[in-house]
Amino acid sequence: MSAAVLAVDAGNSKTDVAVVAGDGSVLATARGGGFRPPAVGVRQAVDALADAVGRAFAAAGVTAVDHVSACLANADLPVEEEQLAAALHARAWGTTVVVRNDTFAILRAGVEEPRGVAVVCGAGINCVGMRPDGRVARFPALGRLSGDWGGGWGLAEEALWHAARAEDGRGAATELARTLPAHFGLPTMYALIEALHLERVADARRHELTPVLFATAAGGDPVARALVDRLAEEIVSMAAVALTRLDLLDEVVPVLLGGGVLAARHPQLDDRVRELLAERAPKAVPRVVTARPVLGSALLGLDHEGAPARAHARVREFYERV
Fold it and tell me: Where in this chain does the record put each ATPase BadF/BadG/BcrA/BcrD type domain (predicted)?
């Protein structure tokens, strides 16, 4: 059986690839490490993909496919997608190559046709939307530089800021001043600030504070609750703008919620997002996406190849089983 699509979903921490036939049969899959072009450069990042692609090709018994559908982390701007597409095309893995930001994979995995909006809140925050006619809505998603607020990393930083000010008297009292240092077995915010500054606690461990923030909010702390509500505002603002750009605000359309923070279904955040969506986009249908994003990459590849609906159903059935 010939292979039509190489589907790639490459995130900061892991990569999933699949070789898919034109009828939707998944011929082989493989998993690799993270994809981080900003840290290691485009060439080395693509080298990291090559190992997983090579194993999948070997298992499928192919050396190339008709089309490469790659949804990649750190492909935040169209110019970056073009650069990465050129780098993948140079590998001769497929006759044609389309690179998209990895948020598109989550969106496509959650819908039966390429129509809707997805908001992803993991380490950062991003939103994309698409219509079957090819129109898309997107944001640069470069953090505060591009007007973003939120994501697990942003929440942790904000929680630390409020906790530090609460402890020394510059800000409102909050239980965060106790719960954040306690997570690391430390007695005070001063001790946590010192530990982070002197790297006795690795900077990368800040992400561990996001669940602490949500737990503190669930306990009724006003400052923590306000941060969770602010995140809900950001999520719904992005979704409403994307729906408006695509002329979908007045249509029944899915709004997919993905990424670790949203997939955790924290009650306050989940409830507030749904309340705000009901106010600002009454016809939007919010739904948490739990499917593996590589499914979305495969479906986008089959879209490109004009595959029939039964092919889309077959690849979806495969990922529902694994």
Answer: 8-301
Task: Find out whether 288 and 248 touch, Cβ atoms under 8 Å.
Answer: no
Query: Please, what is the average pLDDT of the chain?
Result: 94
Q: Considering only the top CATH level, what class is 111-290?
A: alpha beta
CATH of 3-109+291-321, one of 3.30.420.40, 3.30.1300.10, 3.30.470.20, 3.40.50.880: 3.30.420.40
Angle formed by the axes of helices 222-245 and 267-280, nearest 10°: 40
The C-alpha angle 26, 83, 25, rounded to 5 degrees, equals: 5
Output the pLDDT for position 42: 87
Q: Is the pLDDT of residue 283 over 70?
A: yes
The length of the chain is 322
| DSSP H or E segment with residue 71 | strand 65-72
Domain ranges (residues) in the chain: 3-109+291-321, 111-290
- Strand-pair partners of 128: 118, 138
Query: One fold for both 3-109+291-321 and 111-290?
Result: yes
Contacts of 82 (CB under 8 A, 6+ apart): 99
Q: What angle do CA 52, 299, 74 make, to 5 degrees?
A: 55
Which tens digit of pLDDT belongs to each residue from 201-231?
Answer: 999 899 999 999 999 999 999 999 999 999 9
DSSP SS3 for 165: helix
Residue 130 has pLDDT above 80, yes or no: yes
Cβ–Cβ < 8 Å for 11, 307: no
CB distance 23 to 65 below 8 Å: no
Query: How far apart (Å, rounded) are the C-alpha atoms in residues 90 and 49?
Result: 13
pLDDT of res. 122: 87
pLDDT over 90 (residue 74): no
The whole-model pTM stands at: 0.89
Measured distance CA(93)–CA(64) in Å, rounded = 5
Rounded Cα gap, residues 43 and 195, in angstroms: 36
Phi-psi region of 121 (alpha: psi -120 to 50; beta: other; left: phi over 0): beta
